[in-house]
User: What shape does this take?
Amino acid sequence: MMLKQKIGFAGIGNMGSAILEGVLQKRVATHSMIMGYDKLPGRAKEVSKLFKVRMARSAEDLCENSDIVFLAMKPQDFPGFAEECRDSLKKGKSVISILAGLTIKSIRKKLGPVPVVRAMPNLGAKMGESMTVITGHDKKLILAAEAIFRGCGEVVRLPENTFDQVTAISGSGPAYFFYLMELLTDFGIKNGFPKAAASRLAVQTAFGSALLARNSKDSCAVLRQKVTSKKGTTEAAIKTLMRKQFGKIFHAGLDAAARRSRQLRKG
Assistant: This one.
């Protein structure tokens, strides 16, 4: 899906530039239809040179020359951006936000009655493999947001009242998998493996398992059961984890992440 709207990226740090790169690589929009802005001139110059897109002179300039304003700055920079740009976001403009903790209601309170889609991508965007959840009420803007985020991974629509749980599952999710790979690596090192070999075993096993889970018709539970032979080594490990209530402990961690998300949202 090639978008006809002009997209203005407000904030082009790691996540913003990863999404911008996906948009261009997947031809969701052409270079001429994209403009960027970053409060750090050096960063703006670097991204302009790398992706061959125009840079706005100011946040206001960006908003005036964009149909869709993509909010990707740090959340603490949003109030100043909103104060500068509120009058520029007139009829026909719309907003897509990846600002953590800022609800659609809070964004509209600062920017005025513009259509807003809220999105939560994750770190996988850097590799073109993000899991992004989006929510909003404007159907045309939802379709545009889906096209943009498909440039850097997969997209799911969910209600906004699930976003604290989304944070716990996919927003913070990469760290859980990194931690599991870290534990596998540490076990190898403890048993005399060279660090590089232990890490390679852990990371490649995780990578292959993820590909299998994504491409199989079976659920993760069924895949686990298929690889767990009766009285075998895998069963010995799984039974120990279950006996130690690993599932309960892990879910307690997810609950803590969702709870912290609610606290941050409420300030």
